[in-house]
Design brief:
The strands form 2 sheets. Strands 2-1-3-4-5 form a 5-stranded mixed beta sheet. Strands 6-7-8 form a 3-stranded antiparallel beta sheet, with helices on one face. It has 177 residues and is of the alpha+beta class. The relative contact order is 0.12. It contains 4 helices and 8 strands; from the N terminus they run H-H-E-E-H-E-E-E-E-E-H-E.
């Protein structure tokens, strides 16, 4: 009899614990990036729940980005799509970022996927940004190193002699002039 009661209690405990362990998020389910039509537009990206930047200014998807950050902070798997639109000349670039609970993997059409351990946030409040041309900025950068300065990130992203000395992928750039 004690064994039956113990089994029932264990089942009840497991049933109560499982909802807290489930992966719950409010992120959109995106169509595979390779299956999108060639005429996929900025408006399509906004309607699909992408995080949208127009000329480096966040214009849509702020709630989706906050949810992605919330979920990944808990080490739960999540996916987000970033759409970067440039007006001169008009171009739309899409990036899917997947998180499996340990590694972030950005995917873009035509580029080989690569995985990163960390998603690091940089803002104008983090460093002396007097030499930066924007009054406010927020960057999220995927990399495999912690403690990298923002100036090193920017230098490595340039085309100068320091370019590609740092393994990184800038996924989020919100600039305010």
């Amino acid at each position: 009899m004690k064994k039956k009661i113990l089994c029932v209690l264990m089942v009840l405990c497991m049933a109560c614990a499982l909802p807290g362990c489930s992966r719950e998020n409010n992120l959109p389910d995106y169509v595979d990036i390779a299956a999108l039509p060639e005429d996929y537009s900025l408006e399509d990206a906004k309607n699909d729940g992408c995080v949208v930047f127009e000329d480096h200014l966040l214009t849509s998807g702020e709630e989706e980005w906050a949810e992605f950050l919330r979920v990944t902070k808990k080490k739960w798997p999540a996916d987000i799509r970033i759409a970067k639109y440039y007006s001169n000349p008009p171009q739309l670039f899409l990036t899917d970022v997947s998180y499996d609970g340990k590694m972030f993997t950005p995917t873009q059409p035509g580029l080989e996927p690569r995985s990163y351990k960390y998603l690091i946030r940089y803002t104008d409040a983090d460093e002396n940004s007097s030499s930066f041309t924007y009054s406010s900025y927020e960057y999220y950068v995927l990399m495999n190193e912690e403690g990298v300065s923002f100036s090193r990130v920017i230098d490595a992203d340039s085309t100068g002699p320091l370019a590609s000395q740092l393994d990184q992928f800038i996924v989020y750039t919100n600039l305010v002039e």
